[in-house]
Amino acid sequence: MKAYIEKSIKEVITEFPEIEAILNDYDIGCGPCSVGTCLLKNVVAIHNLPKDQEQKLMTRIAKAMDPNPEAQAPEVQRNTRVKPHEFKYSPPVKKLVDEHVLINKLEEKFKNKASAMNDKTDN
After folding, report:
1. Is the distance from CB of 38 to CB of 30 less than 8 angstroms?
2. For residue range 2-18, what is the model confidence (pLDDT) as tens digits?
C-alpha cells in the first residue's frame, strides 16, 4: 500500500475498483468525482474522519490492495491545512452525482444480499 499512498485517488480506484465501495461506506464519494486528483493519503484528512474511523478505513483499503491477513495500513500524517476542493455542481449534475452514489450503495447491498442467499441455498 505504501506505493499507492502518494497516488491520486482516481489511479487507486482504477486499479482497485472495490476501494470505491469502501470509500462510499464512509460517505466519501471519490468515485463519481470528475477531478480525482486528491492523493490517497489526503482523502481522509480532507473528509475529516475521526482517528478510529480513519484507521478502519485505511486498513480496509490496505486489505483490498493486499488480501494478506496481516496487511496493515501505513500511518498517515494529518495535515490540518489540507482543504477539500470546492466543486460547484449545477443542480442537475449534483442530482446525478448524488444518484450515482446512492446506486453504488444499493448495488453493494444487493450483491451482499444475493451472496448471502446463495450461501443459504448451497447449504
Report:
1. yes
2. 778 888 888 999 999 99
SS3 of residue 8 by DSSP: strand
CA–CA dist 53, 112 (Å, integer): 22
The Cα–Cα gap between 65 and 71 comes to 9
CB 38 within 8 A of CB 8: yes
The CA distance from 15 to 29, in Å, is 17
Listing DSSP states for 29-81 in one string gives -TTT-S---SBHHHHHHHHT--HHHHHHHHHHHHHHH---TT--PPP----TT
Residue with cell 451482499: 112
Q: What is the CATH number of domain 1-86?
A: 1.10.3910
Domain coordinates in residue numbering, the chain: 1-86, 88-123
pTM: 0.58
Mean pLDDT within 56-75 = 79
CA 14 to chain centroid: 12
Q: Which of 4, 1, 6, 83 is nearest to 45 (CA)?
A: 83
